[in-house]
């Protein structure tokens, strides 16, 4: 039946109409052809596209490097959090017995992993050794330092919030003058990290906008280059989708290739840095080892790169194809 | 096939190219559009292909009022029309075969049918042996015939030609005109804009003559306003 139909159609003098199935198959085929053709065009003329792709790759590599840096900086601060100690200073008039009693009390509490008593004499010795004014102290007729207890919290109490509330609570105990966290500098470090993260996000957004603009401009030039061809194709009945498709694929390829290159760049920097950071970590007798780009991050980098390329091309095509009409 | 009802076209800047043109080209008819340059011939053809929109009046093509064709439907509208230009408008970086195949690819004709139909079209214009060449390697007359092959390859019901013989010598011009007559004989409606009055007279087809945007001679029936 359909065979007969198509025969009669073909034999007539005028048959500009096409069946839906043929149209669908052709659309699929065009996607395949356009994607392959545009990729080959980019790869075949590396001089034309190399500069653009390099600029795009750098614009994508910078945020990725930021991200990698932030991930590592956070990992470093996490490895420190476990080492935070609380120093409890007793009131001047506390006796050694009272101090020992408190020590026993505290050592029974589950929050603390390790509880160490620091006698006035130990404290003085330590002070003499590290303060650099040891000689001056020996002129004092009386040891001015109080008894102290150093507490190491268990890991479940090592987060900044619990530490803060523990210190608060310890201050309220009888005999206790002051409870001091030695994590103040970690807080500062973390707030610097937060600020850096915000700056990095802002810069990344600007760079993403840059990628959009670069792809958009590249596609604009490609469209203007093919102005005459586009006019002819419009005259013989090409839809906007038909004309648009190769440009969109070009944008997509630019974004994807640039993202691949960016991932490569960041990984090269990573390999170069890994050696020296592990040396540095050893000097601090830390087991910290530099984290690389996670596969999931690399994947999202590729997706984001492709999307930025596609969107940049889309915006450009929307804007410039409208202006080209057959005369 | 085509009906013009009191069509006006005023360009931005005030130039009035058409001032109330009415005519009807019956289905399967071939006619000539004549007049000096600037008389409105090209504008009239552009209005049919929706390269321009009329300022006033109605144009009916294939029983459809083309004022109702939205911008995004224009490509489908143009697929019903084979257009031929004085300057050929070929793609000079593609072979003759690829040029002729272009409307088929755009329309979504299946891969199996494209070679057959391209070769059939090239055969009709006598260029089958040159399908692998680039347009620039062909003479002006041959390039024009590539343009004709491209216009007829998806078998549109209407052919429009704007000065198709403008750059050709008389002998070649007559060949081209005869080619159009052959398509007309198999049922295609043809409208040719030309100022080659001698050639038009020999062809013995109806003539519409324009002067300063008005019809001064109309050998086709003028349509009534219903």
TrEMBL record, chain A:
Source organism lineage?
Answer: Bacteria, Pseudomonadati, Pseudomonadota, Gammaproteobacteria, Kangiellales
Q: What is this protein for, i.e. what is its function? A: Part of the ABC transporter FtsEX involved in cellular division.
Key words, A-Z: Cell cycle, Cell division, Cell inner membrane, Cell membrane, Membrane, Transmembrane, Transmembrane helix
Q: Where are the transmembrane segments?
A: 50-70, 199-219, 252-273, 293-317
Residue ranges annotated as coiled coil are: none
What compartments host this protein? Answer: Cell inner membrane
| Name of the protein this chain belongs to | Cell division protein FtsX
Task: Give the family per the record.
Answer: Belongs to the ABC-4 integral membrane protein family. FtsX subfamily.
Q: How does it sit in the membrane?
A: Multi-pass membrane protein
The reply to whether Metal-binding figures as a keyword in the UniProt entry is: no
Origin, by domain of life? Bacteria
Where's the ABC3 transporter permease C-terminal domain?
A: 202-320
Gene3D superfamilies attached to this UniProt entry: 3.30.70.3040
Q: Does the keyword Cytoplasm apply?
A: no
Q: Subunit composition?
A: Forms a membrane-associated complex with FtsE.
Known InterPro entries for this protein? ABC3_permease_C, FtsX, FtsX_ECD, FtsX_proteobact-type
Residue span(s) of domain FtsX extracellular: 84-178
Q: What is its main location?
A: membrane
TrEMBL record, chain B:
Any Pfam family matching the protein = ABC_tran
Q: Which keywords does UniProt give here? A: ATP-binding, Cell cycle, Cell division, Cell membrane, Membrane, Nucleotide-binding
List, alphabetically, the SUPFAM superfamilies matched.
P-loop containing nucleoside triphosphate hydrolases
Q: Where in the cell is it found?
A: Cell inner membrane; Cell membrane
What's one GO MF term for it? ATP binding
Please report the record's description of how this protein sits within the membrane: Peripheral membrane protein
Q: Which PROSITE patterns match?
A: ABC_TRANSPORTER_1 (PS00211), ABC_TRANSPORTER_2 (PS50893)
Which is a GO BP term held by this UniProt record? cell division
InterPro entries xrefs: AAA+_ATPase, ABC_transporter-like_ATP-bd, ABC_transporter-like_CS, ABC_transpr_LolD-like, Cell_div_FtsE, P-loop_NTPase
* Oligomer status and interactors: Homodimer. Forms a membrane-associated complex with FtsX.
Q: What does this protein do?
A: Part of the ABC transporter FtsEX involved in cellular division. Important for assembly or stability of the septal ring.
Similarity-based family: Belongs to the ABC transporter superfamily.
Listed NCBIfam families: FtsE (TIGR02673)
Protein name stated in the entry? Cell division ATP-binding protein FtsE
User: Which organism's genome codes for this protein?
Assistant: Kangiella japonica
Recorded name of the encoding gene: ftsE
